[in-house]
From TrEMBL:
Residue spans crossing the bilayer: 161-184, 204-233, 364-384
Family: Belongs to the GSP F family.
GO cellular component: plasma membrane
Protein name: Type IV pilin biogenesis protein
Organism of this sequence: Enterobacter cloacae
NCBIfam families: PRK10573.1
Alphabetically ordered keywords of this record: Cell inner membrane, Cell membrane, Membrane, Transmembrane, Transmembrane helix, Transport
Cellular location(s): Cell inner membrane
Main location: membrane
GO biological process per UniProt: protein secretion by the type II secretion system
Domain Type II secretion system protein GspF: 63-185, 263-383
Domain of life: Bacteria
Pfam families to which the protein is assigned, alphabetical: T2SSF
Length: 394
């Protein structure tokens, strides 16, 4: 529920024992009603002012542990109660307890999850509902946990591969700025006492240092504005389209999204969910507006009667391998197998591209950083060596 708020409470049980905890409720009256429904006499209810941000890995852990408890033979309500009691985070304790209470009141698990769209995506709701209908809730929870873990690993791998060169370049820029603003002025004061002309390399470096000091604000703005604009527009469809056409980052970003989309489609197909509903779940799972628009177009074309492979081909963003396997799977009736193969292919390919990028950039960035810093060091000390030669000649 979007309007829900987290409340801290203290109450007395029927036996008179003091109890305390947290719960989610729309307002104070709803919190009091909830406590009294659980046979607790409220003493104090305080609203938590801090907003909580739901983390995806906590959701993955919940479904993984829930699958394990269900496999052990525990009931769903008892499993959720155990997870609520042992969870280290108060918001999740209150959430799991709320879901367990709703199950006790006759609500289905999928409907209880549907009331928390900020935590559980439509994919979670669809998979859980399928598990309830087929009697395979444990298997559906385990598949959800595996899918989320795979996507988190893939996302972390891509972010690490893209983050590494940025960090190295930022460190190089900081070192260069420190040498230009702190070290070079001291050497320049010494060089003014020399009666001999400075080497050409030193003159160029000192000229660049003077230019950077004079126009430091303009240079900083010139670097900050594109970075800020890219951060603000990172989810804009046009920016996403530009990102896909960049040489290295585009391949990684595209591979990650294709792996995510086909993993969700494969998961829903194996669970017996209709393809259009699975495509809608994939659309809701993808964060990028650009990819959401593509999947929406694919879904609309399929609803008009076009074949699945033709609808994907029409977008001109999916690879020929995707189109070929989708066509083969649709014609042979093995679409779930082909979707699984596509998900595995793109995930493994993206992992390999990230590893290759890291292996290539590490020595390349070290060489670039070493050349820049080495040039500055040589430019600073070269006049001293020339002065020694001049004194020896004299």
């Amino acid at each position: 529920m979007v309007a829900n708020q987290l409340w801290r409470w203290r109450a007395l049980s029927i036996e008179g024992e003091p109890r305390s905890g947290t719960l989610w409720a729309t307002d104070r009256n709803a919190a009091f009603t909830r406590l009294m429904r659980n046979e607790l006499h409220p003493l104090a209810v305080t609203r938590c002012s801090q907003k909580y941000r739901w983390r995806p890995h906590h959701c993955y852990e919940m479904f993984r542990q829930l699958a394990t408890l269900l496999q052990a033979g525990l009931t769903l309500s008892h499993s959720l109660q155990m997870l609520a009691d042992q969870h280290p985070l108060k918001p999740w304790q209150a959430l799991l307890q709320s879901i367990a209470d709703e199950l006790g009141e006759g609500c289905s698990f999928s409907e209880a999850l549907k009331r928390w769209p900020a935590v559980f995506s439509p994919l979670h709701v669809s998979m859980v509902k399928t598990g309830e209908l087929t009697g395979k809730l444990e298997e559906c929870c385990r598949r959800l946990a595996q899918q989320q873990k795979s996507q988190q690993l893939l996302s972390a791998k891509v972010k690490k591969a893209l983050r590494y060169p940025v960090i190295i370049l930022m460190l190089a820029v900081i070192v260069v700025l420190a040498m230009v603003t702190l070290v070079l002025p001291e050497f320049a004061a010494i060089y003014r006492t020399f009666n001999t002309p400075l080497p050409k390399l030193t003159q160029i470096v000192m000229g660049m240092a003077a230019f950077m000091q004079s126009y430091s604000l303009a240079l900083f703005s010139g670097l900050l504005v594109p970075v800020a604009a890219a951060w603000i527009l990172r989810n804009a469809p046009r920016w996403q389209r530009i990102l896909l056409h960049t040489p290295v980052m585009g391949a990684l970003a595209k591979g990650q999204k294709l792996g995510q989309i086909f993993t969700v489609l494969s998961l829903t197909q194996q669970a017996g969910i209709p393809f259009l509903q699975g495509l809608e779940s994939a659309e809701e799972t993808v964060e990028s507006c650009y990819w959401r628009g593509i999947l929406r177009c694919v879904r609309e074309d399929i609803e008009k009667g076009l074949p699945i492979w033709s609808s994907f081909q029409k977008t001109a963003i999916f690879t020929p391998l995707c189109i070929q396997l989708l066509r083969t799977g649709e014609m042979s009736g093995a679409l779930d197998v082909m979707l699984k193969n596509l998900a595995h292919h793109h995930t493994e390919q993206t992992f390999q591209q990230a590893d290759n990028l890291a292996a290539l950039l590490e020595p390349l960035l070290l060489i670039v950083t070493g050349v820049i810093i080495g040039t500055l060091v040589v430019a600073m000390y070269l006049p001293i060596f020339h002065l020694g030669d001049a004194m020896s000649a004299g």
